[in-house]
Amino acid sequence: MNQTAQTRKNLFWLALVGLLALLPAVPAVTANSFLMHVLILILLYAGMAQAWNIIGGYGGQTSFGHAVFFGIGAYGAGMAVVTYGLSPWPGVIIGMLAAAVVAVLISYPCFKLSGHYFAIATFAIVEIFNRVFLVWYWVGGALGLDYPIVEEGLKNLMWYDTKTGYYYCALFLFALIFGIVRLIESHRFGYYLRAVRAGQETAESLGVNSTAVKLGAMALSAALAALCGAFFVQYNLRVDPGMVMSLDMSMKFVLVTILGGAGTLAGPLLGAAVLVPLQEYTRALWGGLGGGVDLIIFGFLIIVIVVKQPAGITGIAREMARRFGRKPSAEKGGASLGAA
Amino acid sequence: MALLEIQGVTKKFGELVACDRVSFEVEKGQIVGLIGPNGAGKTTLFNCVSGLYPVTAGRICFDGTEITGLPSHRIARMGAVRTFQVVRPLKDMTVFDNVLVGAFIHGAGGAGARDTADACIRMCGLADFADKSSGDLPIGVKKRLELARALATKPKLLMLDEVMAGLTVTEVKTALELIRRIRQNGVTLLIVEHIMEAIMPIADKVVVLDGGIKIAEGPPVQISNDERVISAYLGAKFSRRMQARKGEGANG
Q: What phi and psi, each to the nearest 5 degrees, are found at residue A136?
């Protein structure tokens, strides 16, 4: 992609973040706190999916283990507040570092497996962590951790009356993770990552240390997933193993990205923008049915996507741009939507 | 001291001996051709030198350092870079980005790597394809992409695995021109090739493998007269043709 297209892409994303920052000024949004809740979750899920996208999309290593890193981040913040009576911030940092270390330790043997076997191995790891945390007294066991009432504000990363504080935190999280990935995309590391996805032996023959690239991507991806986990626990004010370290949560990382378009910058946002409202509104409307309606619809969507357009929503957007004329500029229209 | 020293390299796949105690050297600045019938072990030897396969026995030294058993990426970073016989474009990436991956070997410095990639793309005549996705290109272009990508790493030794196979006569001529220019830039070349008319005129030395064993080594003229090589690979017809051409001074 040439320089002007790069700049245009950057401007598009800056404008989007700017626009989102102004959203709480709209009274309808602030007053309807459920809408605010949905927006916060969209930003959070987009951030989570984008963190996964680093290794799963750009790196092509389908990890079902991200709930573990998410959980470690959540427990980091949760334990800092509940167990040690501190501000969550030191817990956030330690959680991110711990997640990166765990990710490297887990991935090193798993990267020796390729394709489906890697995915299956990461599946097992979620279950292992879930069981360990269920019986581990120090982290609260099956009961989990319930937050005490402390002073609200940025220091404790907690708000009671309004969700605006959470909204801006989620927006910051979103902008941070998308910014990092945007940077990687145009940097050598991003090229190496995509080269490893496209052909590991070929990449190696060009001097790419594929193991180091994959481990680095995994560590970064895990640390950012942990950061999202920390926000998640601060938002819910409680954590237990089932909430964070479950296959259900792992699937969300994977499916949101694949629905939107793996390996593209816009994919995770588009996927979250479809899944989260679906999840939250069906839960609100048909929660009495016992839940799961959102998952049925979502499962159906995934089947359609995988069969019809494996490139996800970004793929559909590109296809439409191509079909409706405007040849060269149509390509760029698709690109500014995030097709890298 | 030779740039590449292959000493008694043996590679077994189970009971099959693909390369059997192969030894030869590639001097700096030379073009060395590696020929032999299908299944002679040429590509296997390439895979051993480039670190893709571990060798069963033997030593490989590059630029004064032993590289036996080193991972591929280390060997590439030392300056021994290869292309693949079955082309392997990095799909979903444009031609330019493919070459850029090679150019990044010398640091992340954005503009420098981009300039190198640009130069290699133009040198290999890929300028018209730079923005195309590398997955859907005609075979001739894919072969040139293999070459451009390897060149972008600025190698000391470039190992080409049948870059001219499947090309039209005109394309072969362009490729030969390109190889000569690469040599002029100070790059040593080890070339696996089936097209004798292509390799014989440009090679300083030819090594012949048959059934994993080196059966001959020497200047092209000597090789095309070698009885064993003629019966194993070249055939009498080609040998006579080479004889006839020798008068015209094909080595220019």
A: -90, 110
